[in-house]
Amino acid sequence: MTHKSLLTADVRTKKRNAAEARFKAYGLGAIVVAMLALALLLTSVVSTGSSAFKQTYATISVPLTEAKLDKSGTRDLAVMKKVTTIGYTRLLRDGIVTAVEELGLETTLSAKDIGKMLSKEAAATVRNRVLANPEIVGTSVEFKLLTNGRIDGYFKGRVTMESAALDGNTSPEELQLAQQLADAGVFVTTFNWAFLTAPDASDQRPEAAGLGVAILGSLYMMIVVLVLALPIGVAASIYLEEFAPKNRWTDVIEVNISNLAAVPSIVYGILGLAIFINFMKFNQSSPMVGGLVLTLMTLPTIIISTRAALKSVPPSIRDAALGVGASKMQSVFHHVLPLAAPGILTGTIIGLAQALGETAPLLLIGMVAFVREYPAAYSADAGLFGEASTALPVQVFNWTQRADPGFVERASGAIITLLIFLLIMNAIAIFLRRKFERRW
Amino acid sequence: MSVSLILALGLGVLGYVIAPRRAVAAAGGDARKLAALPRQYGLNTLLAVLVPSFAILIAGSLAGAGLYLGWAILIVAFIGFAGSLFNITPDYRARTHAESWIKLILIAASVIAILTTVGIVFSMVFEARNFFSQYDWKDFFLSAEWSPNFRGNSSLGILPLLWGTLYISFIALIFAVPIGLFAAIYLSEYSSRRMRSIAKPAIEILAGIPTIVYGLFALVTVGPFLRDYFAAPMGFGDSASSVMTAGLVMGVMLIPFVSSLSDDIINAVPQTMRDGSLGLGATKSETIRQVVIPAALPGIVGAILLAASRAIGETMIVVLGAGAAARLSLNPFEAMTTVTVKIVSQLTGDTDFASPETLVAFALGMTLFVITLCLNVLALMIVRKYREQYE
């Protein structure tokens, strides 16, 4: 048997070392795959959605002819309301055709096709302005109006000359004219505030769809969840952690809570539909029901994190309080709870963030409805948070079900908005934890 | 009702103000002779008014008694008010009594968790029973055909839905388990502290992203990509929504579940076991494969079961990524549907709670609940038992 130096690896050692390196590479590879997936997910959403925050507007002066809008000349609102948006559409067409002629732009398009470059929503905008202020009839007023979704898409790069040639709703000539109008400063692409404030819009006008109602609905639900889930969750955790005797009954509650945390969210939707809507007769699609369902869903999360926070307060604090004559209740409320507060708050914010992104249960309680009216927080008919509304994630789902490709951009834009809200909430949670966390 | 609620609230506040004065007066103006601080008497009265009134309110509205509820609240509030004021003597231990009211509130809060479960079970059993009275349970559980028809005469067999659910979950787990497990091993055994502090939160971001985002990702990016580069060239079909699309995206979602749970479990394996193995000359990877993983195996199985339960109950990814056609097929590039998708589609839009086509959703929900419950209980039992082993 020949003796080799320990310093030169034999075949078997080489093999083992190679296996070692391979194993380590698998681990690194797994992390790289996970990171890539995250990066791909975020870039996909941001690249399709960021254009939703820009919008192309046309600034044109519209002749508000008296003969068309108010034949009687009395400025009587009841009479003027009889002129529908179709009547206004003609005036808009005149306005934009005049603008094209004044600029001396050459086009083969008919007046009808030029008029189509404005959004269907534009006529409603002008009509509302006229009805709000009838005195402007008879003059020419400058309006900043939405352009058609395809024209808007062209300026964002979603619609190209090639795709327009295949599209029945637009044509390369329209896009060329739009480009000329943009060069002349008539079409301007600016930041889209309306996306965050406007209500949803119908299938044919993705350019007008906004998140106003959805953000309001989500806000209402978060209020309900915060007001209910935080006190209930904290109270339940205090009982379980500080007072509950160790017996079968508390065991049942404990197992129950960890199970509830793992129940599929859609099951909570079924619960909400059967109990809150069918049995207790709450209003369908109302933020109140949504908030209640989300409360039940977030409770386990809040309870689990609150209990962890309570547990981390050292027993010496309790003993000291009891030692100077405080009751058990006083030691908890005066000493343990304030010390656990940062942890409880962090857990609550994370629970709220989870609730904000939840979609499935809200679909079942009817929050997919098409809602254009801003819901009031309180109304005499519907009660507190009882008016129909949608929510941010549900609005995303709703837009993915629409045919017009403009809605994909809107849905991704809505997701960016949602993710920004979540980012802010989590950042606050991390900040609180960093700032107030105490190690004993 | 809201009027009497406000009255009860007012009564409570009134009691909170009056009771301390009464107590001091009962002690002859000397607060030191009282068994508790004067404000404890106020607190006791406040709680004696509010706790029973709210209990009545909640019980009453659950039972649906609208008409007399207002009166009942008022009566109970007044009894609490008068009773607690009448009880005030210098020897009355107001703090102890106030604290038992508080404890009652705490207990009530923790019972809500039980009530939620009862509510879930009750709501599904009740409507599912309605369904099974109209539709034979054998046809539901054993039929391989799903074709609901809102004019009646539907075939509502759960098998194709279950198949879709399990197939998608299986693909998701095939993707997520190795990646999550290897990521956990690398993070806990190999990586530097610095890398761990970056990579671990980054992976956990994946868990914080709402599922609707994954759904849109499947719909807009992954689905068309798989169709154009895999399914269509290889002749597997031309559907963007498919088992593969939903499975892969769901797999991404599950990575952090598997990795963070496994990470905890691997960290719980005592260092002495590693040291023993390394001391005998094993390499690091041999130690991990032959000592750490076998020791952590029960916990890892628990983590995988939890991930499986997540996958089975997941809704938005499959609604947007898997399609709506109920189909029993092996081709992973074909659109299939799941239990959760059908719950959503049967319960949204116009629903008629007398027809089996709507009620079937509750039977589906119950099946889903039972399956995930079994997985959860099993997983929790395994994880719990395993934790005790090394403590």
Protein model, in words:
The complex is a heterodimer of chains A (440) and B (391). Chain A has 440 residues and is mainly alpha-helical. Chain A folds into 2 domains: 53-208, no CATH class; 212-436, Orthogonal Bundle (MetI-like fold). Chain A contains 19 helices and 5 strands. In chain A, strands 2-1-3 form a 3-stranded antiparallel beta sheet. In chain A, β4 (378-379) and β5 form a beta hairpin. The longest helix of chain A has 39 residues, at 11-49. The N and C termini of chain A lie far apart (61 Å). The model of chain A has no long low-confidence stretch (mean pLDDT 89). Chain B has helices at 2-26, 38-63, 69-86, 94-134, 137-142, 159-190, 193-208, 211-231, 243-268, 271-279, 284-313, 316-321, 339-347, 356-389, and strands at 146-147, 155-156. With 391 residues, chain B is mostly helical. Chain B is flat, with a radius of gyration of 30 Å. In chain B, a hairpin with a 7-residue loop joins β1 and β2 (155-156). Chain B contains 14 helices and 2 strands; from the N terminus they run αααααββααααααααα.
Head-to-tail CA distance between termini of chain A:
61 Å
Structural class of chain A: mainly alpha
Poorly predicted segments of chain B: none
Count all strands of chain B and give the number. 2
Average pLDDT of chain B, rounded to a whole number, is 89
Tally the structural domains of chain A: 2
> Could you please say which CATH topology of the largest domain in chain B applies here?
MetI-like fold
- End-to-end Cα distance of chain B, whole Å, is 54 Å
Briefly characterize the structure.
The complex is a heterodimer of chains A (440) and B (391). Chain A contains 19 helices and five strands. Chain A is mainly alpha-helical and 440 residues long.
